[in-house]
Design a protein that fits this description.
Layout lengths: L5 H24 L5 E3 L6 E3 H17 L4 E4 L7 H11 L5 E8 L1 H5 L6 E8 L2 E9 L4 E6 L3 E4 L2 E2 L12 E3 L6 H14 L5 E3 L4 H9 L5 E4 L4 H4 L2 H7 L3 E4 L12 E4 L4 H10 L10
Parallel strand pairs: 3-4, 10-11, 10-12
Antiparallel strand pairs: 1-2, 4-5, 5-6, 6-7, 7-8, 8-9, 12-14, 13-14
Helix pairs in contact: 1-2, 6-8
Length: 283
């Protein structure tokens, strides 16, 4: 699938990077954040989330008024709302899928582990992605077939050859049906890998897999705005992305595994052995 001319690609990525940096500046300068909850007490939102989304959306619409836009803050909480929102834009000629602050609990707790994510989709396929970490002034960029960069320099995934040498980022879910698989998987991973980390920002974890800081990351309950940019970063940096059971990834996939590719099959097998390939049934 053609993904636009070089000129169009350059403009799309320039707008995405500028919007992400502007929203990141708002994140970094925010103080005394008022916290509210969405689906449950673990699912947080702040006024800054909405402000960052307004910044990103205004920038995109100023340059691309005919493009579709999906931002997390416009979507009711829960899997059904996320699925319906994605379906509304998935087949558009161009669509932007945005998480204005990924890692809101970290943000609200003054932990410098959150970021802005902007994914660009054409006819249902991920073609571009920008992730900006305002606390480290790091901007990750990918375009399909063009590789991935960090602050303009090419990046690649970790060369860890085995699980024993892998640093794996595990989930910390807010839905009860994902808590059991998360705990079972961590118990299975710890004896087998070099180390397990929990960042609390899935987008940042994808970016860190892409640049080799992590060997893998998995989660059982992600939405399209969590993955649109980050999964493309991983793939364009030479890594692999799939469902946690090893089946093919798409934007509709909620249980996602991203890795350097080398340890991918081992991880799929380990998650299966632990009974952690999928969420548990809802209570």
């Amino acid at each position: 699938m053609a993904v636009g001319s070089r000129q169009q690609q350059g403009l799309v990525l320039a707008v995405a990077q500028a919007a992400a940096v502007d929203a990141g500046r708002t994140m970094r300068l925010a103080r005394r954040v008022e916290v509210k909850t969405k689906a449950n007490a673990k699912d947080l939102v702040t006024a800054t989330d909405a402000e960052c989304q307004r910044i990103v959306e205004a920038s995109i619409r100023a340059s691309f008024p005919d493009h579709a836009f999906l931002g997390e803050e416009d979507v009711p909480p829960g899997p059904q709302g996320a699925a319906l929102a994605l379906a509304s834009v998935a087949e558009e000629e161009w669509a932007w899928i945005v998480d204005p602050i990924d890692g809101t609990t970290n943000f609200a707790s003054d932990l410098a582990l959150s970021c802005v994510s902007i994914g660009v989709v054409r006819r249902g396929e991920r073609v571009g992605g920008v992730v900006h970490d305002p606390y480290r002034d790091e901007t990750f960029v990918a375009w399909r077939g063009e590789g991935a960069t960090l602050n303009g320099r090419p990046i690649s995934v970790s060369a860890a050859p085995t699980l024993e040498q892998a640093v794996v980022c595990a989930p910390s879910p807010n839905q009860p049906s994902s808590m059991g698989p998360a705990l079972r998987s961590i118990a299975a991973l710890m004896p087998r890998v070099r180390s397990v980390r929990v960042l609390g920002s899935g987008v940042l974890a994808f970016a860190w897999v892409a640049c080799g800081r992590l060997s893998a990351y998995y989660e059982h309950e992600l939405a399209s705005w969590d993955c649109a940019a980050g999964t493309l970063l991983v793939q364009e940096a030479g890594g692999a992305v799939s469902h946690t059971d090893g089946s093919e990834y798409s934007l509709r996939t909620r249980a996602v595994l991203a890795s350097n590719g080398i340890v991918h099959d081992e991880l799929v097998g380990l998650l299966a052995e632990a009974g952690a390939s999928r969420r548990d049934p809802d209570p």
